[in-house]
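User: Hey, my collaborator sent me this sequence without any context and asked if I could get a structure. I don't really work with proteins. Can you help?
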Amino acid sequence: MDMPMDIELIENHTFEEIKLGQSARLIRALTLKDIQGFAAVSGDTNPAHLDAAYANEALLHGVVAHGMWSAALISALLGTQFPGPGTIYRDQVLHFVKPVHIGDTVTVTVLVTALDASQKTVDLDCLVINQHGERVLHGIAKVLAPTTKIRLPRVEAPQIQLFDPQSRFKDLLALSKGMQPVRCAVVHPCDEGSLSGAIDAARYGLIIPVLIGPEVRIRHVAAEAGIDLTGVEIISQPHSHAAAECAAELAATDKVAMLMKGSLHTDELILAVLAKPILRTGRRMSHVFRFDVPLYHKPLLITDAALNIRPTLPEKVSIIQNAIDFARILGVTEPRVAILSAVEMVNPSIPSTLDAAALCKMAERGQITGGVLDGPLAFDNAVSLDAARIKNIDSAVSGQADILAVPDLESGNMLAKQLEYLAGASGSGIVLGARVPIALTSRADGPSNRVSSALLALLVAHNARRDQPRAAW
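Assistant: No problem. I've predicted the 3D structure and written it out in C-alpha cell form, which is a compact way to encode the shape of the chain:
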C-alpha cells in the first residue's frame, strides 16, 4: 500500500522479532486536562482527583492522577509501540507506590523477561518512574504477541472538549463572596423547578425567599418534591396575576430587593412591574442571558432574547447600555459588544446593519458608554478571530466579544436555545432596567439555572445598594 511521505507510521514487533532483554519506553507529562479527561471517560470523580481544596487537605497533599491513568500508559506503550498493533493482553499485575501530581513527568518502561514460543506469549517487567527517578508503579504484564507484521499510519486520538459546569458554577458563586443575602419575592413558585430553585438559592446564602402565590398549592408542591419550607415566609395570593402584583408592590415599597420569576408567564410579571411608576428608571427594561459555553473562552452575554420583540434604535441603546453596565458588575472592565446581523457589511436592505452602524457611531459620541462596540458583525466574526481574519475584518471585538447584541427577540431566543441544547452551554438570566433586578429563566430551566440567575440578581442588587441604601436590606 502506497502512503504519503509525510504520514507518521507505526510498526509492530512480531513474536519472532522479540528478544529477551528487549525494552521500550514512553514519556508523558501529567496535566489537569489529563485528569479531567480520565474522570470523564471512567466516571471516577473521586475528589482527590478533581477537588483542589479537598485534595490539599488529604493524605496525598494535592490533586493527583487516577492510579489507573499510569496503568493506562503501560497499555498505550504495549499497544502502539512494543510489541505494538496486534498485541492482546493476557494478564497484568500492578503495584502502586507513589502518586503522580499535576506537572510530574513519568517514564514508562517495559522489559521482556520471558518468551513462550508454544503460546506466542511475552512476559514483560513494567516500570513507571517520575522525574525524580522514584518508582510510581511497577508490575508484570503477559501479552499475546502479534504474529503478522503490521505497518500502518498512526491514528490520531479523538479530541475531547472538556467542560466542567460545576467548576464554572463555583467560579460564578465566588463573585458573591462576602455578600449578604437579600429579601427576594419569588413569584408564583408553583412547580418543583421554580420552588426548589428558590430554596436552593437560599441554601447557598444568596436570597431570603418570600414565596408569593397560592399557599396550599405551594405547600403541596413542596411535600411532593420533599422540599422543606420550615421558616420560609409565604404570602398567599389566589393566582399568578395577584402574585405578580403583590411582588411588584413589595419592591415598590422597598420590602424586597429583587424579584424571581416562578411558574408564570414572563409578561405577567413584567406588566406588574411596569404598572408601578416608582419601579421605572427611565431606561428600557431588557433581558440578558449569561452563558458558560464549552467552546468559548469566557462567559458570554446575549441580549435581548426574552423581553423586547422588535426593538427600535432608541430601545437598542437601552438594551446595550443595560448589558454593558451588567458586564461591568460581573467584573469586565471594558465589555466588548458585538452587534449582530446576518452580514458584516452595512446593507440598506438589512435594517439591523443600519442599526448596528448607528449604534457604533452613538458610542463614539458618548451616547453609549463603558464598552467597546463593533457592528454589524455576523455571528462567526463576533466569536472567532479566524473567521474575522479570513474576511479581513480588523476589529477589537471579533473573537473577544463579551456581549452579543441580537437584532430581535426571535434571533436571540433561537441563538440562546441553540447554545444550551446543541452546544452544551449552561445559562442564567436577568431582567435589568427597573429599580430592582429580576431573576428570569425559562420554565424549562432546572434549579441550578435558577440559582445562577438569583446570584446575578444579587450582584446587581448589591451594586445598587452602594448608590441608594434600601429598607429591604
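In plain terms: The mean pLDDT is 91. You can pass these C-alpha cells on to your collaborator as they are.
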